[in-house]
Write a structure and sequence with these properties.
Blueprint (H helix, E strand, L loop, with lengths): L7 E11 L5 E11 L3 E5 L6 H7 L8 E6 L2 E2 L5 H7 E4 L12 H11 L4 H14 L15 H13 L5 E5 L7 H13 L3 E5 L3 H7 L2 E6 L2 E7 H6 L1 H6 L16
Parallel strand pairs: 3-8, 3-9, 6-7, 7-8
Antiparallel strand pairs: 1-2, 1-4, 4-5, 9-10
InterPro entries: AAA+_ATPase, ABC_transporter-like_ATP-bd, ABC_transporter-like_CS, ABC_transpr_CbiO/EcfA_su, Co_trans_ATP-bd, ECF_ABC_transporter_ATP-bd, P-loop_NTPase
Organism: Streptomyces physcomitrii
Main location: membrane
Length: 252
């Protein structure tokens, strides 16, 4: 956790977790993110990345160790506040979009939290504006392109005004223009970002810091460019840059 300074948005300490079938997914993970940091979570398939992410807002629990969000322990007594503070954008936007219109999808979370009337409308407008989708408010989500649906999925989370935004493979299945547009949106946000990705150039473009999770433990935690330039480290954790890609070539 070297280089992380207070105040902390997220603090994971000695987190261990086994599934009911006995599979041990995490073996004592320590991770801290300072407020406003953008950090990439890298690792091979089966490393425990999804298991870790699902502990951050209490979808999974019952393991050993602690998770704190802005100082609040992730436990049953704080669950409503934790789920407001930690927003997860899943890889498939269709897992998050289920209402007849974009506006209703974005309003769903705040409305369930008790927001009504003009305050709810303002929250929806603000979230759609941040992702450049205001003009699509009355459109059915299934009529949008994949990239547009992903931006709406981000808006549904931003409407809750989270402190931490967790993104699962945000660049997957996006065309180059949509990929760039989403990167511009993510750079503009004033939230802490944890980005789970196999897209290493995207991680380099957006996240100054990267963490490798491998076999349920943190195997490396360093500036992204430094980490990606370590060929031996990368190979040992089944991480591979596109052919010919220079980790020093991306300017942020």
């Amino acid at each position: 956790m070297e280089g992380v300074t207070a105040p902390l948005s997220l603090e994971v300490s000695k987190l261990a977790f086994a599934y009911p079938d006995g599979h041990q997914a995490l073996f004592g993970v320590d991770l801290a993110l300072a407020a406003g940091e953008r950090v990439a979570l890298l690792g091979p398939n089966g490393a425990g990345k999804t298991t870790l992410v699902l502990h951050l807002n209490g979808i999974l629990g019952g393991g050993h160790g602690t998770v704190r969000v802005a100082g609040l322990p992730v436990d049953r007594g704080n669950m409503a506040e934790i789920r407001r503070r930690v927003g997860i954008v899943f890889q498939d936007p269709d897992d998050q979009l289920f209402m007849p219109t974009v506006r209703e999808d974005v309003a769903f979370g705040p409305a369930n939290a008790g927001l009504r009337g003009a305050a709810l409308e303002e929250r929806v407008r603000e979230a759609l504006e941040r992702v450049g989708m205001t003009a699509y408010a009355d459109r059915p989500p299934h009529h949008l392109s994949f990239g547009q649906r992903r931006r709406v999925a981000v808006a549904t989370v931003l409407a809750m005004r989270p402190e931490i935004l967790v993104l699962d493979e945000p660049s997957s299945n996006l065309d180059p223009a949509s990929r760039r547009e989403l990167a511009d949106i993510l750079r503009s946000l004033d939230v802490t970002v944890l980005m789970v990705t196999h897209d290493l150039p995207y991680a380099l473009e957006l996240c100054p810091r990267a963490v490798i999770l491998s076999e349920g433990v943190i195997a490396a935690d360093a500036p992204t460019a430094e980490l990606l330039a370590d060929q031996e480290l990368m190979a040992s954790h089944r991480l591979e840059l596109p052919f010919g890609f220079d980790p020093g070539s991306t300017r942020r």
